Each structure stands twice: as C-alpha cells, then as structure tokens.
Amino acid sequence: MSFMRKIFITGGAGFIGSAFVRLLLAELPDCELTNFDALTYAGNPDNLEELHNERHHFIQGDIADSREVLGALEEGTDVLVNFAAESHVDRSIASAKEFIRTNVLGTQVLLDCARQRGVRRFIQISTDEVMGSLPEDSTAYFVEDSPFAPNSPYAASKAAAEHLVRAAHHTFGLDTVITRCGNNYGPRQFPEKFLPLALSNAMNDQPIPVYGDGRNVRDWIYVDDHCRAILLAMENGRSGGTYNIGARNEQQNIDVVHSLLDTLGKPRSLLSFVQDRPGHDRRYAMDPTLIETELNWRPRETWESGLQKTIHWYQENGRWLERTRSGAYQDYYRQQYGAEIQAT
Ligand code: NAD
Ligand code: TYD
Description:
By secondary structure, the chain is α/β, with parallel strands linked by helices. It has 2 domains: 6-184 and 219-245, Rossmann fold (3-Layer(aba) Sandwich), CATH 3.40.50.720; 188-217 and 251-279 and 303-333, Alpha-Beta Complex (UDP-galactose 4-epimerase, domain 1), CATH 3.90.25.10. It is 41% helix and 17% strand. It is built from 12 helices and 12 strands. It has helices at 15-27, 66-72, 89-94, 97-117, 153-172, 194-203, 223-236, 253-264, 289-294, 303-316, 318-324, 328-337; strands at residues 6-10, 32-37, 56-60, 79-82, 121-127, 176-181, 183-185, 208-211, 217-222, 241-245, 250-252, 271-274. The strands form 3 sheets. Strands 3-2-1-4-5-6-10 form a 7-stranded parallel sheet, sandwiched between helices. A 3-stranded mixed sheet has the order 7-9-11. The chain has a two-stranded parallel sheet with strand order 8-12. Helix 6 (194-203) packs parallel to helix 8. It is globular and about 55 Å long. The structure holds nicotinamide-adenine-dinucleotide and thymidine-5'-diphosphate (TYD). The site of thymidine-5'-diphosphate has 13 residues, from helix 3, helix 6 and strand 8.
C-alpha cells in the first residue's frame, strides 16, 4: 500500500496531467485524487470524460489565486503534484504575461498554500528546456546539475518555478522533488504541439509546417512512460532531489514528420518548411542515468510502439480532434502560420 493516499494534482485536465490521473487511479487503489485545473484553452474536460470514479474529484480553479487553492486543498493532503502551466513555447513568444502569472506566481502560491495546509510532499513537473540548448552532433547531454540557460519565455518561467521550489525546500524544509522531462507524445496532446499538429494535418492531407531547416533535435518520450517516472519520484524520490527523465530517443523534426507520413501512407510532399521560430533551441537530450539507477525506472515503449499507439488513438478519436481544432484553435493557427498553411 502506498503511503501517498490523498493526492492533489494541478493541471490534471491537460495532456500529461490527465494521463497521470489515469495512471494513479489504476496503480494506487486506495488513493483519493483532487484534480484542480483552471480549464484554459489547453485544459479539456474531454480528457477526463470516462473517469467517473468516486476517487477522482475535479475542481475548477486557478493556481495563482490563493483563495481558490486554499478552498480546494485540504489538511491531510499527502502530496501535491504541480502540472498546471502555460506550456507552449510559441505562445510564450507571442506574449509572456500568462506564463509568468501561472508558471511563476502560480508555483509560489502553491508552495505557500502547501506549507499552510501541511502538505507532506510537493512535486514540481519541469522540463529539459530550463537547461537551454545543446550543440548538435555532440555527445553532450543534460544532467541534473547542468547549468540553467533558458532561452524562451516559457523555459525562463519554468526555470524560475524550479528556483522557487528549491528555495521552499532550503528555507522552509518543505519536502520537494523536481522532475524534468523531454518532449512528450501520446493520446490527448493539444494539436498546437508539433507531433499532434503534424499528425492531425497529415490525417487531413494538409501541409505540415516545419520550422527552419527541420534539423532541430528533440528527445521524445511516450507520455505514460513519463507518468510512471513521476510516480516513482513521488513515492521514492529523494527529498530536495531533481530527476531528469528521458527515453534516449533523439529525433530530428523532419524525421518525426517522415515517420508519421510513412506510417499513415501519406506523401512526404506534405512536409512544408516555414520561417524558423525566433531563438529556436537546436537540440535537447536527457541523460536519465540517475532515475534509472536510483529509482529503477525504464521506459516501456519504443519510438515505434509509442508512435503506433499515438496514431491509433488519434485515428479512433476523431471527435476529440474535431472539437480541439475548432473555434479559437483556428484563430491561433491563422495567427501562427498565416493563410499559407490552412487547418480546416
Ligand atoms: P497542457 O498545456 O496540455 O496542460 C496544462 C494544464 O494546466 C491545462 O489543463 C490547463 O487548463 C491547466 N492550467 C493552466 N493554467 C492554469 C492555472 N493558472 N491554474 C490551474 N490550471 C491551469 O500541458 P502538458 O503538456 O500536459 O504539460 C504539463 C506540465 O508538464 C507542464 O508543467 C509542462 O511545463 C510540463 N512538461 C511538459 C512537457 C511536454 O512535452 N508537453 C515536457 C516536459 C514538461
Ligand atoms: P514543440 O512541440 O512546440 O515543443 P518544444 O518547442 O517545447 O520542444 O516543438 C517541437 C519541435 O518542433 C521544435 O523543434 C519546434 C518544432 N516545430 C515545428 O517545426 N513546427 C511547428 O509547427 C511546431 C509547433 C514546432
């Protein structure tokens, strides 16, 4: 039996948070979950659709509002896992304000409320992007004590959040663990992110916008593998510790697109180079040795099996995709990509 029984998750209606909710309900039969989410454009009640479980309680609220957090966070909570964030680099380039409010202020509000309510452990979900960009064609990897060098407003806001978590541990003795992961893919990822955007455009025979020369490298991991790593860190991670999570799966963006198009049987001519992202990080690559050795974590999916599962899910869930790609998404898409690369 896990000693983590009463669990407070923020951002649990998003892509990774909702996968984590599913994992906990399956793996910890005695846990009680509060899922606290503001339901921004990225938070999607459809992601929780079939989770009618008496152990899962959804509360709509904003992590930057301490009154709302304190209203939902009960004494006796064993662990708070903070997934809630503004999470898309391109949006942070267009406007950083919400990123600072949610990712920085929101994290501090959660830390303060956690202390006030006597929460036993605080898990911060972070990203490889706080460590900036690695040179390509090198054997350099991000390790836990690589220096911070965030290059986008998103990455800077997540780095600031990590600093606040570290400070709460050091100054107030709060039991904290930080997990940092590379690029996730899998079911229910909002199609502003590269992989589901490429996949859904390909499925609709629409051009796939690839920034710059398409040779940027990302270290891809299937979302459930990430969630299992978080669960291990939550239960057994060292207090004050940081764990890098990655599946040793570096891929250039053009290769990601080719894999998708080839698997779907669509022409490679759908790949369309567009103007590069300002400040575009060249390469991310995690060294996961610490979590492998200390917590005995291993990914279960290969790139091939993870992609198959992901493609299958999107093919089977046309309604989910249709709903996420309607309304405000079309406005965002036009603004980001112009009339040239339509998504209809
Ligand atoms: P997402 O954008 O899909 O979901 C974010 C969720 O947070 C949404 O449900 C949204 O409604 C909620 N939210 C946003 N602002 C809020 C606020 N002020 N109060 C309460 N809820 C709010 O993001 P994701 O891809 O699932 O990422 C989850 C976490 O993992 C983030 O912290 C992100 O930085 C981190 N992360 C993501 C990746 C990735 O590849 N997606 C990789 C590493 C780390
Ligand atoms: P993204 O999913 O935005 O994640 P991140 O920037 O946080 O790694 O992008 C993944 C990679 O794909 C990144 O190198 C940028 C690139 N990309 C494109 O080439 N075209 C696109 O339309 C998007 C959204 C991203």
